Structures are given as C-alpha cells and as structure tokens.
C-alpha cells in the first residue's frame, strides 16, 4: 500500500518522509500482526502520521488556491489596464529603460500613422519630424522623451509634428520618468493635438489685428492684457507703461472731455465698463506720453461669463482728423465772414464816394482815380480768394488736370515778371537761372501760379527795397527752384503747418487771406511729381524751394 506524494517543495519533501515512515509502520504491522499489542501501538502511530499528513496537504492546497486567486487577480488587473490604456483619447507611449517603445495606445498609432512598439524613441521622433514652432528640428537632447529618461519632467511643450502620410499637427507634449527603487526604469509620454485651438487663436488674433479702431482688453483689476496695433499707435505706450495699473496709465493719458475739463475716474469709459456699464461714443481727448493730443470716440463694455466679471473691452475710434476738419470749417466760416467782407466794404464805400463825386464834376478827378484804383485792387483780392476756394475744391475732388509740356524756365520767369509789373514790385526780384538749365516738364499756367504765389509772399513779407532772389539749379534728374527773401522769417511753431489747408501763421509772419495760398502751391507742386519745403529763421528771411522733373 502506497500513498502518492504531491512532489512540491520543502513541504512536499516533509510529506514524503512521513509517507515513507507510514509505509515502514504498515510493513511492520504486517510482520507483527500476530502480536496485537504491538500492532495496536503501531496503528496508533500510523494514524497520527496520517492525520498530520492530511493537515499538511490541506495547508498546501489552500496556499496553491491563494496563488491561483492572485494570478487570476493579476490577470484581471492587466486586462483592466489594457482597456483603460486603449481608451485614453490622447496619444500615449510607454518607454522601457533603454528608450524603446514598450506600449503605444491606439490613439498614438492613429496620430503617428504607424505602430512604434519596439522602436527607439529617437527613431520615432525622426519619423515624426518633431520641430519647434519656428520650424527648427529638435536635437536629441531637446526631445521630451530623452529628458524624461534622464529624470526630468516636461509639461505642455508646444511642438509641430508631421506624420509619414503628410498630416501636420501642432501638439502639446508632456513626458515624465517612471521610477523603480529610486532609479529611472522608463518613461511615459503623451500629447494633445491643439491644431484646431491654434487655428482659432490665429483667427481671433487676425480679427483683432484687422479691426480699424483701437481695441484694448482689460482684466478685472484694470490691467491691459491685450492691445491691437491701432491702439498701440494711438496711445503710444511703451512696454513698461502698458503694464502699469489702470490708475497709473490713465494718469499718463490725462483724459479730458471735449470741453477741455479733466475727466473724473467715474466718467472714464473703462472705469464704467469695469463696474458693469456699457458705454457708446464718448468723446475723450487724450494726451499721449509721446506728446500728441488725440481725440477719440470711446466705447466700452464688461466681459462676463456666468455672471462673473472677467474684465472689460474698450474700442477707440480716432476722430482727431474729424475734429480738425470741424475746426477748419469754423475757421473758414470766420475767415469768410471777416476777410471777404473787408474788400466788399471798401468797394461799397468807394462806390458811394464815386456817387457823391459824380455830382461835383470837374473837381474830383484825382479822388475818382484813387477810388477806382481801390475798387480794382480789392476786387482782385476778392477774386484771388474765390479762385483759391475753387482750386481747393478741384484739388480735393480729383478734378485738377495738368496740360504738361516742355517749359524753358528762364523764358517763363521773364514773361511772368513782365505781366506782374503793374501789380508787384518786380524790380526787386533778382533772377539767377543758368543759361544751360535743361527744360522741365510742367503745365505752364500752373507753374506761373506756383511762382506768383511764392514771389507775392516774398515781396509782401520782406522790407521795401530789399531783394527777392529767384534761382534754379539742376539736381540729378530734377530742377530745384528757390525763392528767397530777407523778411522777418517764420516762427518755428508755424513751420510744420505752413502748407496745411486754411493755416494762418500765428508767429512772426502774420498771414492774410484764407490761408490757402501755400496749400494750393503745395498741391500744384505735388501734382507735377515734385516736393516743396521751406527753410527759415526769425530775423533772417525765408527760402521756399520746390522741384520739377527734367524734360
């Protein structure tokens, strides 16, 4: 009779010894069966040995059962991990200690267009052409997986990849080392495709950049978080000034109302928007840090999300030019009301005098002559003003037409001075035009108007008897014509505005008329393709110069 062993480990060996002992006892029983007392003793010992063997066998069976349960649990957990790993929507790679891809979820395989398992991480990066947003390809040391294998954690690094099939994506990559017993045993890397987000941001940026008005976005604390280029040009803030708190950067702008009174904090459009108000078309005068005065129409409103204040948005429409037009219109109305009435009053007065003298024939011939001269002179002044207004309208409506031809400048000047002899003191004009000066391309009548305006101003604003010099010289493929006087000069504050429409000098050199003469002169010169400028110092005269193309 034999009992089979389960043959397993130290416990099995012990069971084998007990089985052998049991066999020996049984053999002894068979040999001593006649002796019942000895047999009884042996049977008892055999029973004890059998009981201990059974208990040991039960313990081993239970241990084996636990091992089986543990193995089943491990298998179940592994299956759950596989399901979770496969369900992760973003691409995910697990690298072993040597940097080979041990696992890749389906999202990674789809995103890359190939199965990277078993490949080295550097080879994977090269196949994906990983590069910086600027286009430069990443070096091995810059790879997020390489840095993770060296123990660093990479979070949200923005890169560009191109799959083998040509698909390009903007991705945000993160990577982290996997540690075991305080050493790096691998790495995990995952990324998110942010191509659509990048496109939306680019579209928003392009929209903001394309807005014709200035646009500013503020956070709830009143700090500027975004400005478009128009706002940057309007306000002229430096980077440091832009980062200032609301009250400090508003102090730099010194906002005023259209009446010139400082605007209070409660009235400022941005302050009202941050309090939850929406405002439209508030006229504000800003004094920028770079010294400009800018008129704007400001609108502002709060930015909210689910009843939470996120900040405010402000738009600034530059109405400086409209304000200037309004001022010019008012100046024009005042000028017309004053300057056109003056010659008309003289004409009316002289006409009345002629009427009275007509009744006393014979003794008023000299007075009649003076009256007639006054009437003619003021009628001419009035005609020039009207002509200036007509020409201005023509220039600005694009109706000006030039009849260009080859013009000998010296001959034109001599002819012009002859026709001006009765109206101006042309004997004071000195002409210095070389005989070999090439002809220019110009409209003769318009060129005469340019020279008449400049000579008239020079003679009018220089001392009686002083010389006015009209000169010309060649410069490359153009001719420079200059008219120089010895008058009181032009004040520095008037110089930048001298050729502007309706501008009347307020400095040393007081102007007459509508303030259109030099503006029309500039328009005529520019219509010929030339440029005009002035050099002047108070007390030392002025020189006006312009260019014309050579024929």
Question: What do these coordinates show?
Answer:
This protein is an alpha+beta fold. It has 15 helices and 17 strands. It has helices spanning 9-31, 36-87, 106-112, 121-127, 144-149, 195-210, 229-235, 239-242, 246-253, 269-274, 320-358, 365-396, 409-420, 444-460, 517-527; strands at residues 92-95, 101-104, 154-162, 168-180, 183-193, 214-218, 224-227, 279-287, 293-305, 308-318, 405-407, 429-432, 440-442, 468-475, 478-484, 532-536, 542-549. The protein has a 5-stranded antiparallel β-sheet, sandwiched between helices. Strands 7-6-10-9-8 form a 5-stranded antiparallel β-sheet, sandwiched between helices. The chain has a 5-stranded mixed β-sheet with strand order 12-14-15-17-16. A hairpin with a 2-residue loop joins strand 9 and strand 10. Helix 1 packs antiparallel against helix 2, helix 12 packs across helix 15 (517-527) and helix 14 (444-460) packs antiparallel against helix 15 (517-527). The longest helix is centred in the first third of the chain and has 52 residues, at 36-87. It is elongated and about 185 Å long. Mean pLDDT is 82; it is low at 1-8.
- Termini gap: 137 Å
Uncertain residue segments: 1-8
Enumerate how many helices there are, as a single number.
15
The residue-averaged pLDDT reads 82
Bulk shape: elongated
Percentage of β-strand residues: 15-25%
Please give the share of residues in helix: 40-55%
Give the beta-strand count.
17
Task: Please state the CA-atom Rg, rounded to the nearest Å.
Answer: 51 Å
């Amino acid at each position: 009779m034999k009992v089979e062993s389960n043959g397993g480990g130290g416990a099995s060996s012990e069971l084998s010894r007990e089985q052998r002992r049991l066999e020996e006892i049984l053999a002894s029983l068979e040999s001593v069966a006649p002796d019942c007392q000895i047999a009884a003793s042996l049977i008892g010992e055999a029973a004890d040995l059998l009981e201990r063997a059974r208990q040991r066998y039960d313990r081993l069976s239970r241990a084996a059962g636990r091992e089986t349960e543990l193995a089943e649990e491990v298998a179940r957990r592994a299956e759950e991990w596989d399901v979770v790993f496969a369900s992760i929507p973003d691409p995910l790679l697990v690298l072993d200690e040597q940097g080979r891809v041990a696992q890749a979820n389906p999202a990674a395989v789809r995103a890359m267009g190939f199965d990277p398992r078993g490949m080295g991480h550097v080879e994977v990066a090269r196949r994906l052409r990983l590069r910086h947003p600027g286009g430069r390809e990443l070096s091995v040391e810059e790879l997020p997986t390489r840095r993770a294998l060296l123990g660093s954690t990479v979070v949200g690094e923005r890169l560009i990849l191109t799959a083998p099939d040509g698909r390009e994506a903007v991705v945000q990559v993160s990577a982290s080392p996997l540690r075991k017993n305080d050493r790096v045993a691998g790495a995990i890397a995952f990324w998110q495709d942010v191509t659509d987000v990048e496109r939306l941001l680019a579209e928003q940026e392009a929209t903001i950049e394309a807005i014709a008005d200035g646009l500013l976005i503020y956070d709830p604390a009143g700090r500027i978080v975004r400005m478009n280029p128009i706002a940057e040009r309007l306000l002229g803030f430096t980077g440091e000034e832009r980062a200032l708190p609301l009250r400090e950067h508003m102090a730099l702008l010194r906002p005023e109302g259209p009446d010139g009174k400082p605007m209070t904090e409660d009235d400022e459009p941005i302050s009202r928007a941050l309090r939850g108000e929406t405002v439209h078309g508030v006229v504000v005068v800003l004094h920028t840090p770079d010294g400009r005065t800018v008129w704007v129409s400001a609108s502002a409103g709060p930015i909210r999300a689910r009843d939470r204040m996120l900040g405010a948005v402000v738009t600034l429409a530059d109405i400086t030019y409209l304000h200037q037009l309004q001022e010019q219109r008012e100046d024009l109305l005042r000028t017309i009301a004053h300057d056109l009435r003056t010659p008309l009053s003289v004409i009316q007065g002289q006409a009345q005098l002629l009427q009275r003298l007509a009744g006393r024939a014979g003794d008023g011939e000299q007075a009649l002559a003076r009256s007639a001269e006054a009437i003619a002179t003021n009628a001419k002044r009035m005609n020039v003003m009207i002509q200036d207004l007509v020409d201005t309208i023509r220039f600005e409506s694009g109706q000006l037409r030039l009849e260009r031809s080859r013009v000998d400048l010296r001959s034109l000047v001599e002819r012009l001075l002859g026709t001006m002899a009765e109206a101006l003191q042309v004997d004071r004009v000195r002409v210095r035009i070389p005989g070999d000066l090439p002809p220019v391309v110009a409209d003769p009548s318009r060129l005469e108007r340019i020279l008449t305006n400049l000579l008239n101003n020079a003679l009018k604003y220089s001392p009686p008897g002083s010389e006015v010099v009209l000169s010309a010289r060649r410069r490359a493929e153009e001719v420079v014509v200059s008219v120089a006087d010895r008058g009181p000069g032009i004040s520095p504050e008037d110089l930048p505005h001298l050729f502007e429409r309706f501008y009347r000098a307020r400095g040393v050199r007081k102007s007459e008329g509508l303030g259109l003469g030099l503006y029309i002169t500039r328009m005529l010169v520019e219509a010929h393709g030339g440029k005009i400028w002035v050099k002047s110092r108070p007390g030392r005269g002025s020189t006006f110069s312009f260019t014309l193309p050579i024929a």
